[in-house]
Amino acid sequence: MRLKTTIFFLLLGLIAAPLQSAFAAPPADVTNDKVTFSFPETATFSATLTANASITAVVLEYGNEQQTCGEVIAKAFPQFAPGKNVDVEWIWDMRQSGSLPPGSSLWWRWRYTDETGKEYLSDTKTATWLDDDHKWQTISSEFLRLHWYDGSKAFAQDLLNAGELGLSRNAKQAGLAPEAPIDIYIYSSYQDLQDSILYEPSWTGGSAYAEHNIVIVGLAQDNAEYDRSVVIHELTHVLIGHFTFSCLNDLPSWLVEGLAVYSEGELDSNSQVQFDQAIQDNELISVRALSSGFSEEYGKATLSYSESFSLVKFLIETHGQDKMTQLLGTLRDGSAIEPALLDTYGFDLDGLEDGWRQAVGAAPRAVSAQPTAQPTPTFVPTIVPVSGAPIAVTPTPYAIPTSTINDNGSTPGLAGPPIWLTVSLLCFCCMLMLIIGVFVLGFVVRSQNHKARKNDQA
Q1: CA 283 to CA 359: how far, in whole Å?
Q2: Averaged in consecutive runs of 10 residues, what is the pLDDT profile of the chain (458 residues)?
Q3: How far apart are CA 215 and CA 260, in angstroms?
């Protein structure tokens, strides 16, 4: 029986192969097939297409290589004049779609049909989305490729060594390891970095694109230690992003940023002083408030990073690296943070805060008989690449972003309608309902009277 089944599927495959070839699109006759960059704003795709009959339809299929929940193919429909030979062009405007990170790999192909219904498909081509203003150089290790354009090879090697140190720490502390080489692009200044991608916040010192395996870093020039820390920080975001990749869940901010800061080493002296003062003044931010986002106010943002570091340090050094890896895996599988903590450690967010506060010598968490409203943290603006998730952003040291919260605590642009309009609409609705009610009542009374007259006549 098994032999007969095997022969059946073998014959089926032999029959299907020529059928598949018959329905496959024939190779296309495409020349001058290229993409031209106006970095970082546009990518212009162009080609000359040829067929035996007049070409009536042209589709550009394109995209970029990244980690996604499913295959993503974008399509564009360029304008052209029908003919056996047509020149086509289409512009991908990053100012409308959102910018890709430098170093992204783009791909594209042309699919076109002639008037006889015959469809053609060109070979897929690729290009690297990167400026040509700088003379990029590359130095590599097993899992890192560092690209730079300003400075000596020794300078680049120093940053590459920092990246290797970050990989080693993440492997030991949280069980995080790269699955493929990660590209690190080093810009010689914050301005160069901000010029390399659209809509980057002015205070950004580095960004991580886990779905692309790319990190970009702007140098502080006079603070080499900070530059090394940013490289480690952003690499950690990429490792976390890959290990916890899921279409089901988001990780809490304190965990993501805490792991990134913890991988750098100990807190810098300024952050440690601020953290100690917050403990002394009983001004620590609650863990629940740190779960969804950090404040745009510089002082609160830096305290948020320091607290997140302390929380992660408490979990790893008290309960071990294996537990942290288990927590990340549970979150990757779709669990929310509360049940994930309960499943891994046996306590929820409040239990975590209670144990952590005791460990760092802070006052006990305030408990009220009535639920205490937690302020909603304001998300720091981040770029969302095409079909991608929000990137992780590291602030430039000592830059103070402008808050989008008004003095009264409300967010601009979210005010409700005027009270007079609300009252007017309410009165109108009541009047309309009254008119409908009178009409229905009149109809019912009229029907009953009609029936009564018919009965009397009978």
Answers
A1: 16
A2: 38 40 65 96 97 96 83 91 96 91 96 96 96 95 97 96 96 89 95 88 82 93 90 95 85 94 93 96 95 84 95 96 94 93 97 97 78 42 34 44 31 42 65 74 64 51
A3: 13
- The model carries a pTM of 0.72
**3-state SS class at 126:** strand
Q: Which amino acid is at 77?
A: F
Assess contact for 306 and 271: CB atoms under 8 A. Answer: yes
Q: CATH 2.60.40.10: does it fit domain 26-129?
A: yes
Q: Indicate the class that CATH gives domain 134-243+394-406.
A: alpha beta
Q: Can you give the residue ranges of every domain in the chain?
A: 26-129, 134-243+394-406, 249-375
Render 16-72 in DSSP notation, one character per residue.
HHHHHHHHSPPBPEEEEEEEEEETTTEEEEEEEEEEEEEEEEEEEEEEE----SS--
Tally the C-alpha atoms within 13 A of residue 350's C-alpha that lie toward its C-beta. 4
Task: Enumerate residues 6+ apart whose C-beta is below 8 A from 279.
Answer: 360, 361, 362
Is 182 within 8 Å of 235 (Cβ atoms)? yes
Query: What are the structure tokens assigned to 150, written together?
Result: 């300003």
